[in-house]
Specification:
Layout lengths: L3 H15 L4 E6 L10 H8 L4 E7 L2 E6 L4 E5 L5 E5 L9 E7 L4 E5 L6 E5 L3 H4 L13 H8 L6 H5 L10 H11 L12 H20 L39 E5 L2 E5 L6
Antiparallel strand pairs: 1-6, 2-3, 3-4, 4-8, 5-7, 6-7, 9-10
The structure holds a DNA duplex.
Length: 269
Amino acid sequence: MPELPEVETIKNELLPHVKGRTITDVEIRRDSTVRDTTPEEFKSCLIGRRIENLERHGKYLVFDLDNGGHFAMHMKLSGSLWAKASEDEVPDYVKAVFTLDDGTKIFLRDPRAFARMWLVDNVCEITDKLGPEPLTKEFTSEILAERLKGKNAPIKSVLIDQVVIAGIGNMYADEILYDAGIDPRRAARGLSKEEVGRIHKAIKRILPQAIASKGASVQDYFRPSGEEGMEQFNFKVAHQKKATCSCGGPIVRIVVRGRGTYYCPNCQK
DNA sequence: CCCGGAACCTGAAGGC
DNA sequence: TGCCTTCAGGTTCCGG
């Protein structure tokens, strides 16, 4: 599922295909993909616009347009963007197609049909709802401690709350807590300063490593080339059904606040 | 404020 | 083998 490292990879790898290109056509194959406006208005606002840049905010991908407007996408569980020369084979489960002035087609592929896109006047509409970006210099251990302060919810739930930190989802939260050696059920406010420091260090290690691997292809994540990411092969606990930890103990799946959670009871206290 | 649950979706996995 | 049921997951919204 696209989390911060996957959306960052999509942004990085899609950019050379779209930067400076003008949108010549938009096809919406499933109306519910477009939010807050009609597919017709969405199309008419995009056709003829040049794409100046791409931004990632948390798990959101934002296209900057030459008229100062933007449109945003959220891949939710199974969305991916494929860039193809026009006559190439077409992926399945396509919900929207963008044609560019050099003939490139950008396909929104989404088997679960949860992905959404919408027009955005000001990027603040997106960033105002999000906590800090975890990979910035400003995101220190002290800031993390501040964000966790007073929260009685399990640390796993707090880490995936986009209001607390932007971009961490279910699978990376599991990997981060394994790396930090913290039981996912621990109350956030009960963590010591040293333990918060370990989580902070794990965030700063796991997310860049996943970006270097071009994301993790579990479920339906693909890069714009159609290739898979490689980070899933580095997972220690996430989605490791019936696996054994390096300590010799079993990886266990539990449910934390309704989310499937993998961890090692022996290594995570 | 905090929490739980439903809704949105449908391919895949599991049960019989 | 094949049919049927259940599950997973991010976000939003509603209700207690």
